[in-house]
Amino acid sequence: MIKDGRKLLSIEREKLILDLLDSGYTGITVLSDRIGVSEATIRRDLLSLEESGYVKRVHGGAIKLKNAETEPIFIEKAARNYDAKEAIANSALKLIENGDIIYLDGGSTIQILAKHLTEKKNLTIVTNSLMAALELFETDHRLIIVGGEFRRLSRTVVGSLTGKIISSLNIRKAFLGTIGFTLEKGMTTTDPNEAYTKELVINNSEKVYVLADSSKVGHDSFAVSGKPEKIDALITDKGIDDKEFKRKLLEKDIELITPQ
Questions:
Q1: Which of 69, 91, 107 is the last residue of a domain?
Q2: Do both 133 and 228 map to the same domain?
Q3: What is the pLDDT along the chain (260 residues), one digit of tens a residue?
Q4: How far is Cα 65 from Cα 21, in angstroms, rounded to an integer?
Q5: Burial of 169 by CB count in 10 Å (0-12 exposed, 13-18 middle, 19+ buried)?
Q6: Same domain as 92, residue 30
Q7: Dist. CA 114–CA 134, nearest whole Å
Q8: Are residues 139 and 242 in the same domain?
Q9: Which of 10, 36, 103, 247 has the highest count of CB atoms within 10 angstroms of its CB?
Q10: Helix extents (H) in the chain
Q11: 58: domain CATH number?
C-alpha cells in the first residue's frame, strides 16, 4: 500500500493488520489484498506481532490475542492522549535554551518534542530514538545518534553497546519517556536493556526531566529505569490532582511541571 506517495512502514502495516484482525479478517491472502503488499510481507509482519504477544498465527492466517499484557507498538502509543502529550512537549520545550546540549529518549511524547525543536538554534542533540532522529534530519542542529541494539517496539537502540557513546558525553538536559512512574520506584519500563540505557543517560546528565502523561503516573512496570532521587522534574498534564502525591514529590525534591 502506498500512503502519501510512499510505501507503508512496518509499524503502519502492523497497525492495519491488528485493525483488520479486529474486523474479522484473519486470512493471509485477505490481509495481503486489503493492505496491498505480498503474502510474504504479511507473514513477516505476523511473525513480528506474534513475537510481541499481539497475535497467534494459525493455519492460513492469524488471530488477535485479547488483553495481552504487552507494551503497545509505537504507532498505537503515539495515538493515545495526543493533546496531553502535545502540552507536555511544549512545557519541555520552554526548558531548552539555544545552544543547549540535550538528550532525547524514546517515546511518542519525546517525538513531539523533537518536532518542535525547529524553534531553537544551535542545539547539540543526542538520541537513541530513531523516531526523534527522523524529525531532526533536516534541521541545522548537531545530531548524535547513539548506536546499540534495535528495539522494535519503541523504535530505539538500547543495551550495553550504547554505553561507549553515552558514558563519554556530558549532557546538560535529558528528556526521558517512561512506561510508568511511581514515587517508590521512579521510572519503569518493560525492557531491561532499555532500562540500562536510560540509567546511563541519567548518570551522565546534569538535569533529568521525565515526560509522562497522567495515565502513566502511579503505575509501574517490569524494570526500574530511573530512581526518584535522580529525577529533577516530572513534566505531565493537568490530570494529576492528588495533593498527597504532589506533597511527596516536593519531599523528594522532584519539581512538578504542568502546562500553564
A1: 69
A2: yes
A3: 555 555 776 767 888 898 898 888 889 999 999 999 999 999 988 988 887 678 889 999 998 886 554 555 555 555 566 888 999 999 999 999 999 999 999 988 999 999 999 999 999 999 999 989 989 999 999 999 999 998 877 889 999 999 999 999 999 999 999 999 999 999 999 889 999 999 999 999 999 999 999 989 988 888 999 999 999 999 999 888 788 899 999 999 999 999 87
A4: 10
A5: middle
A6: no
A7: 9
A8: yes
A9: 103
A10: 10-22, 28-35, 39-51, 74-79, 82-93, 108-116, 130-136, 163-166, 192-203, 243-251
A11: 1.10.10.10
**Both 65 and 86 in a single domain?**
no
Digit-coded pLDDT (tens) for 190-234: 889 999 999 999 999 999 999 999 989 988 888 999 999 999 999
Q: Is this model's pTM higher than 0.85 or not?
A: no
Q: Do 95 and 201 lie in a common domain? A: yes
How far is Cα 78 from Cα 62, in angstroms, rounded to an integer? 25
DSSP states along 214-225? GGGBTB--SEEE
Long-range contacts of 82-89 (CB under 8 A, 24+ apart): 84/213, 84/214, 84/237, 84/239, 85/109, 85/112, 85/213, 86/112, 87/237, 87/259, 88/211, 88/212, 88/213, 88/235, 88/236, 88/237, 88/259, 89/113, 89/115, 89/116, 89/211
Tell me: do 47 and 86 sit in the same domain. no
Amino acid identity of residue 135, one-letter, is: E
What DSSP designation does 173 have?
E
The structural domain count of the chain equals 2
